[in-house]
Amino acid sequence: MAQFEGLDNRELAHALKGQTVSVSRAAFPKADEDEFYWVDLIGCRFFGEQDGQSVCVGEVVEVLDNSAQSILVVHRGSWSAEGVFTPEKDEQGRPLEELVPFVQAIVHSVDLPARELHSHWSV
């Protein structure tokens, strides 16, 4: 929920229904140590575990809210040496997805400067 200066009644606010609202990153309050803005997670490499080893699963492309917790939408795939991500696709050409609960029991490390999330997610 948000309240905008100058929009102090329901009729004025209703006129903006369905519109996109943009906010400068400079206006974001600083997140607490264990909190993250969803926009910062999108584009991060997501690592899971296979045979006790950390392996890159893919890229976080979206974050969803299911009321109980946030869900990371991860497209499975790989990166080229130039840093270009190529998603794996199904028979219909759609990216293969993993839906990963964004909870500390699963995602144990978020390194935003490195653009990496490390997890116990089984690959």
From TrEMBL:
Molecular function in Gene Ontology: ribosome binding
Domain of life, per lineage: Bacteria
Single GO BP term: rRNA processing
Residue ranges occupied by any Ribosome maturation factor RimM PRC barrel domain in the UniProt entry: 38-121
GO cellular component, one term: ribosome
Matching Pfam families: PRC_RimM
Protein's recorded name: Ribosome maturation factor RimM PRC barrel domain-containing protein
